[in-house]
Design a protein that fits this description.
Strand order of the largest sheet: 1-2-3-4-5-6-7-9-11-12-13-14-15-16
Largest sheet: 14 strands, parallel
Number of helices: 18
Distance between the termini: 77 Å
Protein name: F-box domain-containing protein
Radius of gyration: 36 Å
Number of strands: 16
Organism: Lentinula boryana
Helix content: 25-40%
Length: 556
């Protein structure tokens, strides 16, 4: 490249030698350099201008310009749609929609790209139908006023997905009772803005994650006579333990005014439901206490029910039973697949087993009250036989069944052939050697080829004596755990995927007994099967008549 440069004769001689330039040469070279740098700067500006022109002309040929507004609308809708199905535990803590790098799918962000995108975004009601407004300060209503108005306006007649939360503030300034009351009142002011659009509510989540406050003169808005005819899913949670608090009563009134509900999650006490007009209800969940007669209202009024989760723990409340006569027919829930009932008293359990039939039931979870009652064996057996359901999961906790009862149930064809998950938790009482031996798979030498015990069982939870039954536990595990890749012939039973065992160790005043050896041995297979071992100290005594030697125990 140096040959292409034309230099004056004087500068050529300097370039080919080590002779220093004179004072006049320095002045001349400096002037030449200044001219050349000015030319470079001018060329740089021209280059930047040309690159900008190229970018502009390339944008004119961009494929996005060829997309009709209808197709661009579909792309935006698919981008925003998953927001409507966010888990409620996360959606309550963040405002949406908002201009935020973490919310790139927000319609506000889309509307800031260009005029066309803004026009499409503002004319697409589905983009503005989801709104989440958490109230952490008394000024929440004012802060969200423009956002709420914008979403209501731009969503036009589209269904609304609303999340409204009252959260505890990390700022000490807003923790006083007065500030809490103002924050609650501010949330109700925001709720007032949504009430004229209640006919458009599709999803409504009200979360009051704050300690009980004095509501003063502020009350919840009244519901219109038309109710919420299009409400599909409702989630409600409050810290209030009272079923007659204003927020709980308002939420129950909203439930009764929403005849087309498909999904109810109610984390608050339920009492005096009066009616359950939800013929399309598929999922009902109440975890903070309810009465049995209210649950039977749901059983009778919701024929499409598929999942039912209910807790019967109400303080200072005895069993509240439905008024059935001997001539009344048994309630048949033909689509019920999951029934999970906790804090059951004996009278409530008997009523459930006596008056309910669930032919499609696959998951049955019963947990008793802290008071031990007798176990209704005949009714439970009759319920399973009458339902003729194919159970996939059976969980019995804090109930007074016997291990002989459990073995009888597991022999029933509709349990034996389909059961995959078994949970037995009888107040940390160890299962008997007979039941553990029953669950242990054994190859039969009988030529008749009898079917294996519980061929699909792969998830088991129970308690054992860590010392007395350690060897039996190993035998059970080895009989049901294997690596499928090493078996050329299919194994008669499913491979164990999860084992949760409570290891009961005796309390000795002058010694320490633990299940650490068992834990250490099972740690060798934790990468291939989920092992959950919990140590629980119990009083020693007649439960330890003999201790099996742990000889060769580490051979797993």
């Amino acid at each position: 490249m140096q040959e292409d440069i034309e230099l004056q004769p004087r500068f050529q001689s300097l370039f080919k030698s080590n002779e220093p330039p004179s004072h006049l040469d320095v002045l001349a070279i400096s002037q030449i350099l200044e001219d050349r740098l000015a030319q470079i700067f001018e060329l740089g500006q021209q280059l930047a201008k040309l690159r900008t022109e190229v970018h502009v002309y390339e944008s004119l040929l961009s494929g996005i310009r060829k997309l009709p507004p209808e197709l661009l609308t579909e792309i935006f809708v698919h981008l925003i749609a998953p927001i409507n199905e966010r888990y409620y535990r996360y959606s309550i803590y963040s405002c949406y929609p908002r201009v935020d790098a973490l919310h790139q799918s927000s319609p506000i962000v889309l509307s800031h790209v260009c005029r066309k995108w803004r026009s499409v975004a503002l004319s697409t009601p589905q983009l503005w139908s989801t709104i989440s407004v958490p109230h952490r300060t008394p000024l929440g209503c004012f802060n969200y006023a423009n956002l709420v108005e914008r979403c209501i306006t731009h969503s036009r007649v589209s269904p609304l997905y609303i999340t409204l939360a009252v959260l505890n503030s990390t700022n000490a300034e807003f923790r006083s009772p007065t500030a809490k009351g103002l924050r609650f009142s501010s949330a109700l002011d925001t709720l007032d803005k949504f009430m004229p659009e209640i006919s458009r509510w599709r999803y409504f989540h009200l979360d009051l994650l704050t300690t009980q406050t004095v509501l003063s003169e502020r009350s919840f808005p009244s519901l219109p006579l038309s109710g919420a005819p299009n409400l599909y899913k409702i989630l409600f949670r409050t810290y209030s333990p009272n079923f007659d608090s204003s927020e709980v009563l308002w939420a129950l009134e909203l439930l009764r005014a929403s005849p087309n509900l498909h999904h109810i999650l109610f984390l608050a006490p339920i009492s005096n439901l009066v009616e359950a007009p939800w013929v399309h209800l598929q999922h009902f969940e109440s975890r903070n206490g309810m009465r049995l007669r209210d649950l039977f209202l749901i059983f009778e009024g919701c024929p499409a029910l598929e999942n039912c989760i209910a807790c019967f723990e109400l303080e200072d409340e005895g069993p509240s039973l439905p008024s059935f006569g001997e001539s009344d027919p048994v309630i048949v829930l033909s689509q019920l697949r999951k029934l999970q009932l906790t804090h059951l008293r004996q009278a409530e359990l008997i009523a459930i087993l006596q008056w309910l039939t669930a032919p499609s039931l696959t998951e049955l979870v019963f947990a008793g009250h802290h008071v031990s009652d007798s176990w209704p064996d005949e009714l439970f057996r009759s319920f399973l036989a009458r339902s003729a359901c194919e159970l996939n999961t059976l969980s019995l906790s804090r109930l007074s069944y016997s291990d002989a009862n459990i073995m009888d149930y597991l022999r029933l064809p509709n349990v034996h052939d389909t059961l995959e998950h078994l949970v037995l938790d009888k107040w940390k009482t160890p299962i008997s050697p007979e039941l553990l031996n029953f669950l242990t798979f054994k190859f039969s030498s009988d030529s008749s080829g009898s079917s294996p015990v519980l061929p699909k069982l792969n998830d088991v939870t129970f308690a054992i004596h860590a010392i007395v039954q350690a060897v039996r536990l190993r035998e059970f595990f080895l009989s049901r755990w294997y690596e499928g890749s090493r078996n050329h012939v299919p194994f008669p039973v499913a491979a164990l995927q999860r084992l949760a065992v409570t290891l009961l160790v005796p309390y000795l005043p002058n010694a320490t007994v633990s299940g650490e050896q068992i834990r250490r041995i099972f740690s060798r297979v934790e990468d291939m099967v989920e092992i959950d071992l919990e140590t629980y100290v119990v009083n020693g005594g007649p439960d330890y008549p003999g201790i099996e030697k742990l000889k060769n125990f580490d051979e797993i």
